[in-house]
Amino acid sequence: WTERLREAASNNNTHALRDVLNHFDSILKTKKFSFSNDEEVVRGLMTKLIHQFCEDWSGEVKKQNVMRT
Is the pTM of the predicted complex or chain greater than 0.70? Predict the structure, then answer.
């Protein structure tokens, strides 16, 4: 997932990012969670991440580079 997200985001391809999110969502629907609310939480976190990437990929890259040092 990480590589697919990075590739789509680094190319500023919001369509590809949304495809990754849709694919993730289809896989997520096949999973079982201990608590019924957890699926919703995971979906929300992934959706938020995709939206962040779509809005400001260059800012995300800078943030990751700072955190890496």
Answer: no
Instruction: Return d(Cα 32, Cα 29) in angstroms, integer.
Output: 8
Whole-number Å distance between alpha carbons of 21 and 4: 10
Instruction: Summarize pLDDT for 32-52 with one digit per residue, the tens.
Output: 999 989 999 999 998 888 788
From residue 36, alpha-carbon distances to 20, 25, 41 in Å are: 23, 16, 10
Instruction: Report the pLDDT value the prediction gives residue 68, as an integer from 0 to 100.
Output: 72
Residues 55 and 58: their CA atoms lie apart, in Å, by 9
Tokens of 22: 């849709």
Place of tokens 């993730």: 24
